[in-house]
Amino acid sequence: MTKDNLLNCHKRIQPFIHNTAVLTSRLIDREVNANLFFKCENFQRAGAYKMRGATNAILQLSEKQKKNGVVTHSSGNFAQALSLAAQSVGITAHIVMPNTAPEVKKVGVKEYGGNIYLCEPTVPARQALADEIAIKTGATFIHPSNDANVILGQGTAALELLKEHPDLDFIFCPVGGGGLIAGSALAAKYFGDNCKVYGAEPFEADDAYRSLLSGKIEGNDTVNTIADGLKTTLGDINFPIIKELVSGIIRVHEDEIIAAMKLVWERMKIIIEPSSAVTLAAVIRQSKENPEALKNRKVGIIISGGNVDLSNLPF
Description:
Belongs to the serine/threonine dehydratase family. The protein is α/β, with parallel strands linked by helices. It has 2 domains: 3-48 and 147-303, Rossmann fold, CATH 3.40.50.1100; 50-141, Rossmann fold. It contains 14 helices and 10 strands. Strands 1-2-10-7-8-9 form a 6-stranded mixed β-sheet, sandwiched between helices. A 4-stranded parallel β-sheet has the order 5-4-3-6, with helices on both faces. Strand 3, helix 5 (77-89) and strand 4 form a beta-alpha-beta unit. The longest helix has 17 residues, at 148-164.
């Protein structure tokens, strides 16, 4: 995936997405002794960065493929994004969701015209039902993270951030299926000035951390984390990019995620979901464990989304 691929992708999807705001907080800067720049994809259409990759993937389909629609499996944000992207170009979206998916995300899918199919909350169950729907309907399967067009689309968030702040020393982003961090790493490679990319992950779903250590894709025995968007595993398309370009993964505990989420709500007055808070939690942890690493550095933080069930807050 080349620099031109990323630029062409950004140009292609611009009519369908928002160039989201980059916010700062002097109070949080003081807490971590660094200069933080929050790329607020919680302000993106469908409430998360995944609108970028979903749109790019759909726009790359042939007219025949568009007639048969698309299918994916997702716990929520990609489900909503693909539904809205499909609605934007007038095609059908079939969405497989685990029966444990947050109600707010199911509602979002329905509002964007997606057809929901519920399954057991396991990756094999999700994939099996998506495959079954693809055979029955002729719909094109689009993976939420392990797809070249999706990866390029997700990378446009970091591309926009680096265009606004080309001198960033670091970019931190959450790691779930790996599409966002792979795309962000590509953006940093092509548009950053020695900008290092770090991932953030819960201890309760630390497959990416273990995958970088072992050199092969690892799974999760348990995913008992509040960060529902980070329960998926890496794929064979994004993992090679991550291995080559990502400097490391920082793991955080559940109480750290909740504290970071609350801090943003209280101090920045914006709504972010737990999967987004993992990233700030990782920066805070890093600033405490290794104060010199981030001291006075410019750090980009991808706020991945803001789709929260307001009736079930963790604080």
